[in-house]
Amino acid sequence: MSRTDGGAGEHDGGGGPAPAAAPIPWEDRPPGSGAVAWRSSRNPIIPRGLLPRSNSIFNSAVVPFRDGFAGVFRVDDTTRTMNVHAGRSRDGIAWDIDPVPIRFLPADDRVREIQATFTHAYDPRVTWLEDRWYVTWCNGYHGPTIGIAWTQDFESFHQLDNAFLPFNRNGVLFPRRVGGRYLMLNRPSDSGHTAFGDIFTSESMDLVHWGRHRHVMGPVPWTWESTKVGPGPTPIETDEGWLLIYHGVLTSCNGFVYSMGAALLDLDEPWRVIGRGGDYLLSPQVAYEQVGDVPNVVFPCAALVDRAADRVSIYYGAADTVTCLAHAHLSDLVAFARGR
Ligand code: BMA
Hints:
Layout: E1 37-39, E2 54-65, E3 68-77, E4 82-89, E5 96-97, E6 105-106, H1 111-115, E7 121-129, E8 132-140, E9 144-151, E10 158-159, E11 168-173, E12 182-188, E13 199-204, E14 210-217, E15 228-231, E16 236-238, E17 241-252, E18 255-265, E19 273-276, H2 287-290, E20 298-306, E21 311-318, E22 322-329, H3 330-338
Parallel strand pairs: 6-10
Antiparallel strand pairs: 1-22, 2-3, 3-4, 4-5, 7-8, 8-9, 9-10, 11-12, 12-13, 13-14, 15-17, 16-17, 17-18, 18-19, 20-21, 21-22
The structure holds beta-D-mannopyranose.
């Protein structure tokens, strides 16, 4: 079996890769295709109606866990409440998702103040950091902001305070400290469907108090990412820099179109962009990405990495309805992210 990891490094305070050794789900590039990233033939791997009361299951995050995989899933239910659920899988394809949402325990007494009123929880990410998994998600507190919790077993989840003031979406932790500090990519927004969006990093010594916000990158006019950009999976550490897979949005006459791209960030100062793909990596081009509750959306939230085999498997939400998988070679992604 190949060793897998969630992208964690082994220096600068990192605790090393999460202890796990299951082979990541994989399909070879289809014959005749020159694509950097290609879709799984098993898509969508998670159907909208997997749970008795699920309207849709998408924009979800998975990691290696014990002898298989675990994850946190966005489930919109049949009242259209948006919430996050834990799940487990042996192979990363067939998932057993808890029908009941995660009930976050307060990590300290003051967290009860922000738990008093639930509005929504959505678009989770999961990151192995030092000795546990951290979940970050879009948490409703007088508008969208970033919630953080940790778990060691995907059964009990301990919620810290929200990282930021509203409005903010897409909080994505780095898998180790950088320069001795915890670092989170995030995207300030508005309370609605936000027709703008740049990616920033924010730093913390304790994962509670965040500051030293730095601009990373913004939209590029007249391209697939001309309206807004937001971070996707946990950044993947490579010799050349942090590989960032992200979503970019353009505005067509029929609304937003969400595609997937890749960039390279400086290892020591990740707010410095050292490469950017230019092209999209994947854009909504097949039926399950073009048709659903929100048409024309591919939205990556997680990536499994097998460095020895040069493989990356990317989990993404399609059309805000189902969960899908795409594959790529790590070396090709890095070359793509260097830019043209
Ligand atoms: C964003 C988020 C995502 C969603 C996307 C497309 O603002 O709400 O959850 O996938 O819009 O609808």
